[in-house]
Protein backbone atom coordinates (compact mmCIF):
# COMPACT_ATOMS: atom_id res chain seq x y z
CA UNK A 1 0.00 0.00 0.00
CA UNK A 2 1.43 3.37 -0.98
CA UNK A 3 1.57 6.40 1.28
CA UNK A 4 -1.38 7.90 -0.57
CA UNK A 5 -3.45 4.78 0.12
CA UNK A 6 -2.85 4.61 3.87
CA UNK A 7 -6.20 4.64 5.59
CA UNK A 8 -6.75 7.48 8.07
CA UNK A 9 -6.78 6.64 11.73
CA UNK A 10 -10.31 5.78 12.90
CA UNK A 11 -12.12 8.75 14.35
CA UNK A 12 -13.25 6.55 17.25
CA UNK A 13 -9.69 6.71 18.57
CA UNK A 14 -10.16 10.38 19.39
CA UNK A 15 -12.63 12.17 21.59
CA UNK A 16 -13.90 15.34 20.00
CA UNK A 17 -14.33 18.43 22.12
CA UNK A 18 -18.08 17.81 22.35
CA UNK A 19 -17.92 14.03 22.88
CA UNK A 20 -20.40 12.95 25.55
CA UNK A 21 -17.69 11.15 27.55
CA UNK A 22 -15.56 14.26 28.06
CA UNK A 23 -17.73 15.73 30.79
CA UNK A 24 -18.01 12.47 32.76
CA UNK A 25 -14.24 11.97 32.50
CA UNK A 26 -13.45 15.41 33.88
CA UNK A 27 -16.02 15.06 36.66
CA UNK A 28 -14.61 11.70 37.72
CA UNK A 29 -11.04 13.03 37.68
CA UNK A 30 -11.96 16.02 39.83
CA UNK A 31 -13.80 13.88 42.39
CA UNK A 32 -10.91 11.42 42.51
CA UNK A 33 -8.50 14.31 43.04
CA UNK A 34 -10.61 15.67 45.88
CA UNK A 35 -10.75 12.21 47.45
CA UNK A 36 -6.98 11.80 47.26
CA UNK A 37 -6.31 15.25 48.72
CA UNK A 38 -8.79 14.62 51.55
CA UNK A 39 -7.18 11.27 52.29
CA UNK A 40 -3.71 12.80 52.36
CA UNK A 41 -4.80 15.40 54.91
CA UNK A 42 -6.67 12.78 56.95
CA UNK A 43 -3.77 10.33 56.85
CA UNK A 44 -1.18 12.91 57.79
CA UNK A 45 -3.14 14.24 60.76
CA UNK A 46 -4.06 10.82 62.16
CA UNK A 47 -0.57 9.38 61.62
CA UNK A 48 1.77 12.28 62.41
CA UNK A 49 -0.02 14.64 64.80
CA UNK A 50 0.83 13.05 68.14
CA UNK A 51 -2.20 14.31 70.06
CA UNK A 52 -4.51 12.83 67.42
CA UNK A 53 -2.55 9.62 66.81
CA UNK A 54 -2.59 8.82 70.53
CA UNK A 55 -6.27 7.88 70.33
CA UNK A 56 -6.23 6.31 66.87
CA UNK A 57 -7.45 2.71 66.56
CA UNK A 58 -5.10 2.17 63.59
CA UNK A 59 -1.89 3.54 65.11
CA UNK A 60 -0.08 0.17 65.26
CA UNK A 61 0.80 -2.56 62.77
CA UNK A 62 -0.51 -4.04 60.59
CA UNK A 63 -2.74 -1.01 60.02
CA UNK A 64 0.04 1.56 60.29
CA UNK A 65 2.17 -0.11 57.58
CA UNK A 66 -0.55 0.44 55.00
CA UNK A 67 -0.89 4.11 55.88
CA UNK A 68 2.89 4.57 55.75
CA UNK A 69 2.95 3.52 52.10
CA UNK A 70 -0.29 5.00 50.82
CA UNK A 71 0.44 8.34 52.43
CA UNK A 72 3.40 8.58 50.06
CA UNK A 73 2.01 6.77 47.02
CA UNK A 74 -1.35 8.51 46.72
CA UNK A 75 0.11 12.05 46.48
CA UNK A 76 2.73 10.76 44.01
CA UNK A 77 -0.02 9.35 41.79
CA UNK A 78 -1.98 12.58 42.07
CA UNK A 79 1.02 14.60 40.92
CA UNK A 80 1.63 12.29 37.95
CA UNK A 81 -2.04 12.41 36.98
CA UNK A 82 -2.30 16.17 37.37
CA UNK A 83 0.81 16.78 35.25
CA UNK A 84 -0.43 14.58 32.44
CA UNK A 85 -3.92 16.06 32.67
CA UNK A 86 -2.43 19.37 31.51
CA UNK A 87 -2.57 17.90 28.00
CA UNK A 88 -6.25 17.02 28.43
CA UNK A 89 -7.58 20.38 27.26
CA UNK A 90 -11.28 21.00 26.87
CA UNK A 91 -11.22 22.53 23.40
CA UNK A 92 -8.90 19.97 21.76
CA UNK A 93 -9.59 16.45 20.47
CA UNK A 94 -8.07 13.88 22.80
CA UNK A 95 -6.88 10.32 22.09
CA UNK A 96 -8.99 7.71 23.83
CA UNK A 97 -5.95 6.03 25.36
CA UNK A 98 -5.03 9.25 27.18
CA UNK A 99 -8.45 9.56 28.76
CA UNK A 100 -8.48 5.89 29.72
CA UNK A 101 -5.01 6.00 31.28
CA UNK A 102 -5.87 9.13 33.25
CA UNK A 103 -8.98 7.42 34.60
CA UNK A 104 -6.95 4.31 35.43
CA UNK A 105 -4.41 6.38 37.36
CA UNK A 106 -7.16 8.15 39.26
CA UNK A 107 -8.78 4.79 39.90
CA UNK A 108 -5.56 3.37 41.29
CA UNK A 109 -5.17 6.28 43.71
CA UNK A 110 -8.78 5.86 44.85
CA UNK A 111 -8.19 2.11 45.19
CA UNK A 112 -5.27 2.79 47.52
CA UNK A 113 -7.44 5.16 49.54
CA UNK A 114 -10.16 2.51 49.74
CA UNK A 115 -7.71 -0.20 50.81
CA UNK A 116 -6.37 2.03 53.57
CA UNK A 117 -9.90 2.87 54.70
CA UNK A 118 -10.69 -0.85 54.90
CA UNK A 119 -7.63 -1.38 57.10
CA UNK A 120 -8.78 1.45 59.34
CA UNK A 121 -12.29 0.02 59.56
CA UNK A 122 -10.79 -3.36 60.45
CA UNK A 123 -8.96 -1.70 63.34
CA UNK A 124 -12.23 -0.11 64.48
CA UNK A 125 -14.17 -3.37 64.18
CA UNK A 126 -11.51 -5.31 66.09
CA UNK A 127 -11.30 -2.51 68.69
CA UNK A 128 -7.54 -2.33 68.27
CA UNK A 129 -5.75 -0.46 71.07
CA UNK A 130 -9.11 0.04 72.79
CA UNK A 131 -7.45 1.16 76.01
CA UNK A 132 -5.94 4.16 74.20
CA UNK A 133 -9.15 5.47 72.67
CA UNK A 134 -10.04 8.94 73.90
CA UNK A 135 -12.58 11.68 73.26
CA UNK A 136 -11.10 12.33 69.82
CA UNK A 137 -11.56 8.76 68.60
CA UNK A 138 -15.27 9.10 67.67
CA UNK A 139 -14.42 12.16 65.59
CA UNK A 140 -11.73 10.19 63.75
CA UNK A 141 -14.20 7.41 63.04
CA UNK A 142 -16.74 9.94 61.77
CA UNK A 143 -14.11 11.48 59.49
CA UNK A 144 -13.23 7.99 58.27
CA UNK A 145 -16.90 7.42 57.42
CA UNK A 146 -16.99 10.61 55.34
CA UNK A 147 -13.77 9.63 53.57
CA UNK A 148 -15.19 6.18 52.84
CA UNK A 149 -18.35 7.69 51.36
CA UNK A 150 -16.27 9.96 49.13
CA UNK A 151 -14.17 7.00 48.03
CA UNK A 152 -17.24 5.01 47.02
CA UNK A 153 -18.60 7.99 45.09
CA UNK A 154 -15.28 8.40 43.28
CA UNK A 155 -15.24 4.71 42.34
CA UNK A 156 -18.74 4.93 40.90
CA UNK A 157 -17.93 8.01 38.83
CA UNK A 158 -14.67 6.54 37.53
CA UNK A 159 -16.38 3.29 36.56
CA UNK A 160 -19.13 5.20 34.79
CA UNK A 161 -16.60 7.38 32.94
CA UNK A 162 -14.58 4.36 31.79
CA UNK A 163 -17.68 2.66 30.42
CA UNK A 164 -18.56 5.74 28.37
CA UNK A 165 -15.24 5.71 26.51
CA UNK A 166 -15.20 4.18 23.01
CA UNK A 167 -13.76 0.67 22.87
CA UNK A 168 -11.39 1.47 20.01
CA UNK A 169 -8.18 3.32 20.62
CA UNK A 170 -7.74 2.41 24.27
CA UNK A 171 -4.67 0.22 23.72
CA UNK A 172 -2.69 2.09 21.10
CA UNK A 173 0.74 0.38 21.01
CA UNK A 174 2.71 3.60 21.28
CA UNK A 175 0.42 5.41 23.69
CA UNK A 176 2.03 5.68 27.12
CA UNK A 177 2.69 8.21 29.86
CA UNK A 178 6.29 8.71 28.88
CA UNK A 179 5.38 9.89 25.40
CA UNK A 180 2.81 12.33 26.76
CA UNK A 181 5.16 13.73 29.38
CA UNK A 182 7.76 14.35 26.68
CA UNK A 183 5.19 16.22 24.60
CA UNK A 184 4.15 18.28 27.61
CA UNK A 185 7.73 19.12 28.56
CA UNK A 186 8.51 20.24 25.02
CA UNK A 187 5.36 22.35 24.95
CA UNK A 188 6.33 24.05 28.21
CA UNK A 189 9.90 24.51 26.97
CA UNK A 190 8.60 26.44 23.97
CA UNK A 191 8.26 29.45 26.27
CA UNK A 192 12.00 29.37 27.03
CA UNK A 193 14.80 30.93 24.97
CA UNK A 194 16.04 29.01 21.94
CA UNK A 195 18.84 27.38 23.93
CA UNK A 196 16.30 26.02 26.40
CA UNK A 197 14.16 24.62 23.61
CA UNK A 198 17.17 22.93 22.01
CA UNK A 199 18.27 21.46 25.34
CA UNK A 200 14.79 20.09 26.04
CA UNK A 201 14.62 18.60 22.54
CA UNK A 202 17.91 16.78 23.11
CA UNK A 203 16.99 15.53 26.58
CA UNK A 204 13.61 14.31 25.36
CA UNK A 205 14.62 12.95 21.98
CA UNK A 206 13.19 9.67 20.70
CA UNK A 207 16.49 7.96 21.50
CA UNK A 208 16.37 9.08 25.15
CA UNK A 209 12.72 8.10 25.52
CA UNK A 210 13.39 4.68 24.01
CA UNK A 211 16.37 4.22 26.36
CA UNK A 212 14.16 4.97 29.36
CA UNK A 213 11.57 2.48 28.12
CA UNK A 214 14.21 -0.22 27.73
CA UNK A 215 15.62 0.37 31.21
CA UNK A 216 12.41 1.16 33.07
CA UNK A 217 12.92 -1.73 35.52
CA UNK A 218 16.43 -0.61 36.49
CA UNK A 219 15.31 3.01 36.79
CA UNK A 220 12.36 2.01 38.96
CA UNK A 221 14.68 -0.02 41.18
CA UNK A 222 17.11 2.89 41.54
CA UNK A 223 14.35 5.36 42.34
CA UNK A 224 12.79 2.98 44.86
CA UNK A 225 16.12 2.39 46.57
CA UNK A 226 16.73 6.14 46.77
CA UNK A 227 13.27 6.68 48.26
CA UNK A 228 13.82 3.86 50.75
CA UNK A 229 17.18 5.27 51.79
CA UNK A 230 15.77 8.77 52.22
CA UNK A 231 12.79 7.58 54.25
CA UNK A 232 14.88 5.29 56.44
CA UNK A 233 17.52 7.96 57.02
CA UNK A 234 14.84 10.42 58.12
CA UNK A 235 13.39 7.85 60.53
CA UNK A 236 16.82 6.87 61.84
CA UNK A 237 17.72 10.48 62.58
CA UNK A 238 14.33 11.37 64.01
CA UNK A 239 14.05 8.30 66.24
CA UNK A 240 17.74 7.90 67.09
CA UNK A 241 18.30 4.44 65.65
CA UNK A 242 21.59 2.76 66.59
CA UNK A 243 21.14 -0.63 64.93
CA UNK A 244 22.59 -0.99 61.40
CA UNK A 245 20.40 -4.06 60.86
CA UNK A 246 17.29 -2.03 61.65
CA UNK A 247 18.34 0.52 59.04
CA UNK A 248 18.95 -2.19 56.42
CA UNK A 249 15.59 -3.75 57.23
CA UNK A 250 13.84 -0.41 56.89
CA UNK A 251 15.50 0.30 53.54
CA UNK A 252 14.55 -3.14 52.27
CA UNK A 253 10.92 -2.86 53.33
CA UNK A 254 10.44 0.69 52.06
CA UNK A 255 12.42 0.25 48.86
CA UNK A 256 10.80 -3.11 48.16
CA UNK A 257 7.33 -1.73 48.62
CA UNK A 258 8.02 1.22 46.34
CA UNK A 259 9.57 -1.00 43.66
CA UNK A 260 6.62 -3.38 43.67
CA UNK A 261 4.27 -0.43 43.41
CA UNK A 262 6.26 1.10 40.54
CA UNK A 263 6.18 -2.12 38.55
CA UNK A 264 2.47 -2.65 39.17
CA UNK A 265 1.83 0.93 38.07
CA UNK A 266 3.85 0.35 34.93
CA UNK A 267 1.77 -2.70 34.09
CA UNK A 268 -1.61 -1.16 34.91
CA UNK A 269 -1.09 2.43 33.78
CA UNK A 270 1.24 1.77 30.82
CA UNK A 271 3.82 4.30 31.96
CA UNK A 272 6.55 2.82 29.77
CA UNK A 273 5.14 -0.54 28.76
CA UNK A 274 4.90 -0.52 24.94
CA UNK A 275 8.62 -1.04 24.29
CA UNK A 276 8.76 -4.10 26.55
CA UNK A 277 5.45 -5.32 25.17
CA UNK A 278 6.69 -5.21 21.60
CA UNK A 279 9.90 -6.98 22.59
CA UNK A 280 8.05 -9.75 24.41
CA UNK A 281 5.58 -10.12 21.57
CA UNK A 282 8.35 -10.51 19.06
CA UNK A 283 10.25 -12.91 21.26
CA UNK A 284 7.22 -15.13 21.74
CA UNK A 285 5.87 -15.03 18.22
CA UNK A 286 6.63 -18.71 17.75
CA UNK A 287 9.51 -20.92 16.63
CA UNK A 288 11.19 -20.35 13.30
CA UNK A 289 13.75 -22.38 11.42
CA UNK A 290 17.21 -20.88 11.34
CA UNK A 291 19.24 -20.96 8.13
CA UNK A 292 20.93 -24.32 7.65
CA UNK A 293 18.53 -26.12 9.97
CA UNK A 294 20.24 -24.88 13.13
CA UNK A 295 18.64 -23.85 16.40
CA UNK A 296 15.96 -21.21 15.94
CA UNK A 297 17.11 -17.69 16.79
CA UNK A 298 13.57 -16.74 17.72
CA UNK A 299 13.32 -19.73 20.05
CA UNK A 300 16.51 -18.65 21.83
CA UNK A 301 15.18 -15.13 22.14
CA UNK A 302 11.91 -16.49 23.46
CA UNK A 303 13.76 -18.50 26.09
CA UNK A 304 15.77 -15.46 27.17
CA UNK A 305 12.60 -13.37 27.28
CA UNK A 306 10.88 -16.01 29.41
CA UNK A 307 13.76 -16.06 31.89
CA UNK A 308 13.89 -12.28 31.98
CA UNK A 309 10.16 -12.06 32.58
CA UNK A 310 10.38 -14.69 35.32
CA UNK A 311 13.17 -12.74 37.02
CA UNK A 312 11.08 -9.56 36.90
CA UNK A 313 8.10 -11.35 38.40
CA UNK A 314 10.30 -12.84 41.12
CA UNK A 315 11.77 -9.44 41.96
CA UNK A 316 8.33 -7.85 42.20
CA UNK A 317 6.97 -10.70 44.33
CA UNK A 318 9.94 -10.59 46.69
CA UNK A 319 9.71 -6.81 46.96
CA UNK A 320 5.99 -6.93 47.68
CA UNK A 321 6.46 -9.68 50.27
CA UNK A 322 8.77 -7.58 52.45
CA UNK A 323 6.29 -4.95 53.68
CA UNK A 324 3.54 -7.57 53.86
CA UNK A 325 5.71 -9.84 55.99
CA UNK A 326 6.62 -6.97 58.29
CA UNK A 327 2.96 -6.04 58.71
CA UNK A 328 2.02 -9.65 59.49
CA UNK A 329 5.09 -10.54 61.56
CA UNK A 330 2.95 -11.39 64.57
CA UNK A 331 1.07 -13.98 62.52
CA UNK A 332 4.04 -15.40 60.62
CA UNK A 333 6.37 -15.86 63.59
CA UNK A 334 4.45 -18.73 65.24
CA UNK A 335 3.70 -20.28 61.84
CA UNK A 336 7.40 -21.02 61.37
CA UNK A 337 7.56 -22.78 64.72
CA UNK A 338 8.94 -19.90 66.79
CA UNK A 339 7.70 -18.85 70.20
CA UNK A 340 7.63 -15.50 71.89
CA UNK A 341 7.32 -12.12 70.23
CA UNK A 342 9.19 -10.40 67.43
CA UNK A 343 10.99 -7.98 69.71
CA UNK A 344 14.28 -7.43 67.87
CA UNK A 345 15.51 -6.28 64.49
CA UNK A 346 17.14 -9.67 63.93
CA UNK A 347 13.85 -11.54 64.30
CA UNK A 348 12.01 -9.06 62.10
CA UNK A 349 14.73 -9.27 59.45
CA UNK A 350 14.58 -13.07 59.52
CA UNK A 351 10.84 -13.03 58.83
CA UNK A 352 11.00 -10.30 56.19
CA UNK A 353 13.91 -11.58 54.13
CA UNK A 354 12.90 -15.25 54.41
CA UNK A 355 9.40 -14.38 53.21
CA UNK A 356 10.85 -12.33 50.36
CA UNK A 357 13.09 -15.19 49.25
CA UNK A 358 10.23 -17.68 49.38
CA UNK A 359 7.91 -15.40 47.42
CA UNK A 360 10.60 -14.77 44.82
CA UNK A 361 11.31 -18.47 44.30
CA UNK A 362 7.62 -19.32 43.95
CA UNK A 363 7.00 -16.44 41.55
CA UNK A 364 10.02 -17.34 39.41
CA UNK A 365 9.03 -20.99 39.16
CA UNK A 366 5.40 -20.19 38.39
CA UNK A 367 6.22 -17.57 35.77
CA UNK A 368 8.86 -19.68 34.04
CA UNK A 369 6.63 -22.76 34.00
CA UNK A 370 3.82 -20.80 32.34
CA UNK A 371 6.09 -19.28 29.67
UniProtKB/TrEMBL annotation:
Keywords recorded for this protein, A-Z: Membrane, Transmembrane, Transmembrane helix
Top-rank taxon, per record: Bacteria
Transmembrane segments: 28-47, 67-87, 108-127, 139-162, 216-234, 246-269, 314-336, 348-369
Region of interest: Disordered: 280-304
Cell inner membrane is among the record's keywords: no
Entry keyword Membrane: yes
Identification of the protein by name: Uncharacterized protein
Source organism of the structure: Streptacidiphilus fuscans
Amino acid sequence: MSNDEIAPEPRERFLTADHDSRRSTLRALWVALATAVTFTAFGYVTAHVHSVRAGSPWQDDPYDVGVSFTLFLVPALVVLTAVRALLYRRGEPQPVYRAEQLLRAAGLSVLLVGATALLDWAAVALRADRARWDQGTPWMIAALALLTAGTVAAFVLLWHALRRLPAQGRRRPDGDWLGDLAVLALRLASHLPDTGVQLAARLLSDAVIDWIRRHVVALAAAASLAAGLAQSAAQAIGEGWTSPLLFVLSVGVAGGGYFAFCMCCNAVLRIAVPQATRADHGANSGPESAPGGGTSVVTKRGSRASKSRAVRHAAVAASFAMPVALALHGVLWPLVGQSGQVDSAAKAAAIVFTSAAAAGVVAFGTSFARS
